[in-house]
Write a structure and sequence with these properties.
single chain; 361 residues; alpha+beta; Ribonucleotide Reductase Protein R1, domain 1; 12 strands
């Protein structure tokens, strides 16, 4: 009887040990799988970063090559042509599904910081103020027409322009612009409180801190483009005759600007011609572009625009400021980056692209 009991106890101990070993084996297997998974994910992220860096470098080479060939920048050039970009990627050994590049001209957008006259930095730039009013008037009208019911009182252009000006201008002296402006007193009552910048906007998302600019207004949705699609904080340049001061000229490249921006440049009542301008730039015959965009008044060749005058102080036909968006895929993982670059001339006489901002998304 005692021997039988000993056998039973031994069996229980053996089963217990086996159970513990199985549990340990399962845990080790789980930890090993998780470690391999983390290792694989880390490897994929490293590969994605390398792909993105390669894509950005390729985009910069395309922009440098373009600068060496022509001073003018337009939608007719390789950097603006998705098919040409895919061709460059293919020659570099990348499939379009694993690496995508899009290059856009920052001078195609309204410069936020040009709203204020720098280097003094206190007063409106009147020409830019008028341009912004015209743009926002059309922009807000388009959004109102797209919505079946407005949740609140419709915005007016000054309700956006004045707070931006107060956010940018130097000196928080409580002298708000109009009844819709806002200085630090207004923002210190927010939750959480914060102070007015009182200087140039550094990053586009900073506009979301400005009175009246909501995410719904700033970001695009299924039906409407967002304000953020048409504006930029880039454009800083040395002020004339000074090495220390800076300014923003606010010039827009009419060779690359999108239709809503072109419409804002046109005199009131002629905004309907903007799509014709955009189509004119890309018109081809036999695979060749028909029209020369090197002069700032090419728009007068568009039918019905022979007598149209666009303020020359607002217009450019070239740019050295570009936005590169690069998206990469590896296995089931993807990564994207947005990179702002400026083309600059080297002391040796050649050209380079200097990175102004690099942000992974």
């Amino acid at each position: 009887m005692l021997k039988a009991n000993n056998h039973g106890i031994a069996m229980i101990i053996t089963l217990s040990i086996i159970t513990v070993l199985i549990a340990v084996a399962f845990e080790l297997n789980r930890q090993t799988g998780a470690s391999l998974s983390r290792s694989g994910a880390a490897r994929d992220r490293q590969v994605l970063q390398q792909k993105i860096e390669s894509g950005v470098n390729l985009a910069m080479l395309i922009l440098i090559r373009d600068k060496e060939q022509t001073e003018v920048d337009s939608v007719q050039e390789d950097w603006a042509n998705p098919e040409k970009i895919n061709g460059y990627l293919g020659r570099a050994g990348y499939d379009k599904d694993e690496l995508q590049i899009k290059i856009t001209d920052e001078r195609a957008r309204l410069q936020v910081n040009a709203l204020v006259q720098f280097p003094a930095g206190r007063d409106f730039n009147p020409v830019q103020q008028q341009l912004w009013f015209r743009f926002l008037e059309l922009f807000l009208q388009g959004r109102a027409q797209a919505e079946t019911a407005l949740p609140q009182e419709p915005l007016e252009p000054d309700m956006i322009i004045n707070p931006i000006k107060d956010w940018i201008d130097f000196g928080d002296d409580d002298a708000i612009t109009g009844i819709t402006g806002a200085e630090s007193d207004y923002y210190m009552e927010r939750d959480p409180p914060y102070k007015c910048r009182n200087g140039p906007v550094r990053h586009l998302s900073e506009l979301l801190r400005v009175r009246s600019i909501t995410p719904e207004l700033f970001f695009a949705d299924d039906e409407n483009a967002g304000l953020g699609d048409f504006v930029t904080v880039q454009g800083l340049a040395p002020a004339a005759g000074s090495r220390r001061d800076f300014t923003y000229d606010g010039r827009i490249n009419i060779n690359t600007a999108e239709i809503p921006v072109l419409a804002a440049l046109l005199p009131a009542g002629l905004e309907f011609v903007a799509p014709e301008m955009a189509a004119f730039r890309k018109e081809t015959s036999g695979g060749e572009y028909l029209y020369d965009l090197t002069g700032p008044t090419w728009y007068r060749q568009v039918p019905g625009m022979g007598d149209v005058e666009i303020d020359e102080s607002l217009v450019a036909v070239k740019s050295d400021l570009f936005r590169i968006r690069c998206q990469a895929r590896e296995n089931q993982t993807s990564m994207a980056a947005e990179v702002f670059v400026r083309r600059e001339q080297k002391k040796s006489g050649g050209w380079k692209c200097r990175v102004l901002r690099w942000q992974y998304e």
